[in-house]
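idk why but the lab printer keeps eating my pages so im just putting this in chat instead. protein + S-adenosylmethionine:
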Amino acid sequence: MIDPFGRTVSYLRVSVTDRCDFRCVYCMAEDMTFLPKADVLSLEELDRLCNAFIRQGVRKLRLTGGEPLVRRNIMWLIERLGRQIERGALDELTLTTNGSQLAKYATALKAAGVRRINVSLDTLDEQKFAAITRWGRLGQVMDGLEAAKRAGLKVKINTVALKGVNDGEFDDLVAWCGAEGHDLTFIEVMPMGEIGGEARLDQYLPLSRVRADLARRWSLAESDYRTGGPARYVTVGETGGRVGFITPLTHNFCESCNRVRLTCTGTLYMCLGQEDAADLRAPLRASESDELLDGAILEAIGRKPKGHDFVIDRSHHGPAVPRHMSVTGG
Ligand code: SAM
Ligand code: SF4
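predcted complex ->
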C-alpha cells in the first residue's frame, strides 16, 4: 500500500480494547466511560481485519489499547496472528502494555511468536507510580518485567516525561534500564482527549531539555538505530544501552510515517494527529467476502494526510485532538 505522498504503509497498530486496569493521569479521566461491548469488534473480526491488512502488505503489527492484555481471551488472537509470522506473511507481532498482566502472559506471548514488547513505566518509585497510574501497583509491573525477561522477551521501556513528576528520576531510569538490558524511550506528553483536573501545559516537558540535561552526566552518542518509528536514538556510553526520544510536538516526523491505526470499533485513523478516519466495521460486517473490506482499506490509504499539527492550545487548555490515546493506542 502506497499513500498519495509515496510512503509505503507497512505497519498497523491495533487497539484491541479501550478498557484498562490503570487510569494514568495523562491518558484517562478517573471516571472514564467505555464503549458498549456491542460496538467493539469481536476477536474473530479483529483477526479478519488484521488479515486483510496483511494481504495488502502490512508486515508489522502492534497490539495496543487501552490495555491489550485485559481483553478477555486475547491470547486467541495473538496465537492466530503469530501463525502469520510462521507462514512468512508477517515480520513482527508485538504489543504495547502497561505490564500489569505480564506475569501471567509472558511465556504464552513468547510461544506465540512475540519477540519484543514495549512496557510503559514512568517511574521506579512506588508512591509516584500509584499517583501517576491512579490504580496501578509498581510491584505487579516489576513482577511482569521479571517474567518477560525469563521468557526471553526483549523489552523496551516507554517513559512519558512529566514536568514536576518524574523529571528527577531520568538518571535512575537510564541506569536501571542499562542494568536490566532494556532499551528506554522518552515520550513527550501529547494533547489528546479530555483528562479532567490536570492542565496539559503543566505536564509538558520538551525532550530537547531532557536530552541536554542527560548529556551532562552521561556520554550520549548519536545512533543510526531505527525501529521504523519516530524515535531518534542515542547510545549511552556508561551502560551500552539505547535511549530514544519521541518528540511529536517539537519535531516533525511525518515524512517517514509508515503506519496507520485501527481502533477496537474498526475505525481506521490514517494519522495520529488528525481526525480524518475510515469506518471499516460496516464493510467488514456487510459481507462474508473480503472484497468490500479490501476496497475500503485502499480507499482510506489513498486519503492518508501529509502530516499532523499538534499544538497544546494555550488559550483554551483543551486537547488538540479530542479522542483519547486509549482509543487509538498511541
Ligand atoms: N496500556 C498500554 C500502555 O500503557 O502501554 C497501551 C496503551 S497506552 C495508550 C500507549 C502509550 O501511550 C503508553 O506508553 C502511554 O504512556 C502513552 N500515552 C498515553 N497518553 C499519552 C499522552 N497524552 N501523551 C503521550 N503519551 C501518552
Ligand atoms: Fe491505561 Fe496505558 Fe492509558 Fe495508562 S497509558 S491509562 S495503562 S491505556
